[in-house]
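Researcher: Watch the backbone:
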Amino acid sequence: MTELKHRSDFRFFHRLRVRWAEVDMQKIVFNAHYLMYFDTAIADYWRALALPYEESMASLGGDLYVKKATVEFNASARMDDVLDVAMKCVRIGNSSIVFHGGLFRGDELLVTCELIYVFADPATQTSRPVPAELRAIFAAYEAGEPMATVETGDWQKLGSGAGGLRRAVFVKEQRIPEDLEWDEHDVTALHAVARNRLGRVIGTARLIREAPGLARIGRMAVHRTLRGGGHGESVLRALEAAAHARGDQAVTLHAQRSAEAFYRRLGYAPHGEPFEEAGIAHIEMRRPL
């Protein structure tokens, strides 16, 4: 394996805590669980690339299959240890993709691994060349580049992508009636969408004028598998900047109570009493610009 021995050798980390069910009679992590740790980290690596795995593979016309997995043990992890699982894409061949991983307890390297995947036709499981788009995404991520961009515009320009994500999140996932999702504000609002490097919309929101000097951000949605990756914040900040540029002094929004902590972290404070909207508990929150 390539010598990747230090935390500074990696960009990506997935944190986990060793559970009781993962230790053996020696009171150390049973060896087979280390592969599970690395596989769990790989799933999170795809989220770091802003790529919903199943949909992305379908659009790329293939899927990834493990060809080889090698684990080397230096020291053992124990019950309740907090571990950081590091992963790095180190090589892409014609159809193969090679990852190296390191399991760290603090700065101590406990375990290393090499995972070799083959990109293949899911119907026949025969190998095919790794798509150029995927090669570019891996290279960009490991070079420290952002994995998504935010664009603002009107409904005519962005409505197709924004509407598709809103339908998936609000209508299908949260079961909000279709006729409550769409209103007259869509055609006059400023919309923002976050796109990953395959061009897929992964986040959206809209900005309308609530009152003189007061903007309202609403219809905030992020792809189900990519929440917590900063895409909602990117969309929100883009619309806040647009509101500030046109002279608004504050922004208000109706936050679902389950997302209240997210908006608090971004500088919003509750305004008024909780209420119900479309059968979901909400609270109004505001932030000065």
User: Anything to note?
Assistant: The mean pLDDT is 95. The helical segments are 32-48, 53-60, 132-142, 155-173, 178-181, 231-245, 260-265. The two ends are 51 Å apart (CA to CA). The first strand starts at residue 12 and ends at 17.
